Amino acid sequence: MQTPAFEAWPQIGESLAHYVRRRRETLCLSQRELALKAAIHPQSVGKIERGQTTRLNLRTKKTLALALEIPAEHLEAAERGRPLPAGGIVQFCPQCWEPGSEADVLWLDPRAHYCYMCGTPLCDRCPNCQESVASLKFRFCPYCGTGYKAPV
Ligand SMILES: [Zn+2]
Ligand SMILES: [Zn+2]
Asked: Which residues are in the HTH cro/C1-type domain (predicted)?
C-alpha cells in the first residue's frame, strides 16, 4: 500500500476550505470538474472553498475524498481544523524541522516515535535541560537557551 505524499496531508492550521482548494489545484481540476468527479453540485464545491461549509456529510466526504485522491480521514482531520497534538506534546524531528515552522502533523501523531522522512528518533524536549517543548514558535529553549534544531 502506497502512503500518500506528504503534500496530500492537511497541514497544521490549514482549513478545510484551503485544503480542498489546494488538492483541487494540485490535481489541475476546476471547481466544476471536481464537482462532476465527486458527483456533487458545483455550488457545493464553491461553498466549501469559501469556508461556508465546514462540515461535510458522509456521502460528500466519501466522494470528495475519492475525487481529490485522498483518504476520507484527511478531510475529517481538516474539518476538525488545526490538529492539536495529544496531551499538548510537541514532537518533532531535530534534523528535518526548520526553525520558525510548525511541527509536521505526522510527527505529532502520538504513535510516531521516529521521523517518517529520515528515521531520526523524534524529540519532545530540550536536548540540554530536558524541559518539554511547549511550542515550536520558539527556536530556542526558554529555560536554557539551547537551540531545538540539531546542529548540522
Ligand atoms: Zn527527520
Ligand atoms: Zn533547555
From this structure: 20-75
